[in-house]
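Structure tokens please, single chain.
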Amino acid sequence: MTDTTPKYKRVLLKLSGEALMGKRGFGIDPIVITKVAKQIKHVVEHGSSVAVVVGGGNFWRGTNKEARVMDRATADYAGMLATIINALALQDVMEHQGLVVRTQSAIPVQMIAEPFIRRRAIRHLEKGRVVIFAGGTGNPYMTTDTAAALRAIEIGAEVLLVAKNRVDGVYDADPIKHPDANKFDRLSHSKALKLRLQVMDATAFSLCRENKLPIIIFDLQSTRSIERAVQGDTIGTIVYNDDADEV
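Here you go.
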């Protein structure tokens, strides 16, 4: 019989908006979001606590051409609102799968989400609920990567899972522009910062390094990707503590 004991008991999953978009050019792919919900349900049923941070790039990105005519802070706030749309969609789909879900937002939206309160979030997780963190950090100039690292540390997650859209790990160059780019199976936080890898922003990498939080970066479209990452299977790229030999 296969051992289904998860390696990680509490995880934070970062879902990019682009990952929820799937092969579409905009919005949410219902097939993708349903697969995500089913995988999260499987993970929870096997004993792990799951929190989720969602991005908003499938609706809005502050770096898009349309946003460049706007003040940067205003564009970033618009992006935070996009993450709330994704959070509500994910919450609804997960609830249809039988999960108990709570959405907490860094931006007050009392009619549709709780405010972010660290102790309440941890209590939800202890009760077996899935917690979705929306609104980024609530501050402009901060990405949802940074929000994911911050929330993971705050709730005591054992690992940060970063699910990308058709990106199966970390490379030493953009694999789309450079077909000969080399993929890392493992690398340290410090090396990731030194190489200025674009798969996550430097602030997020720095937070994880300072708090010795490992990161697993993988392709959401890969078969059972979330389940395999929580299980401890080899998938994507592991970014590990600088002073650790193993994750």
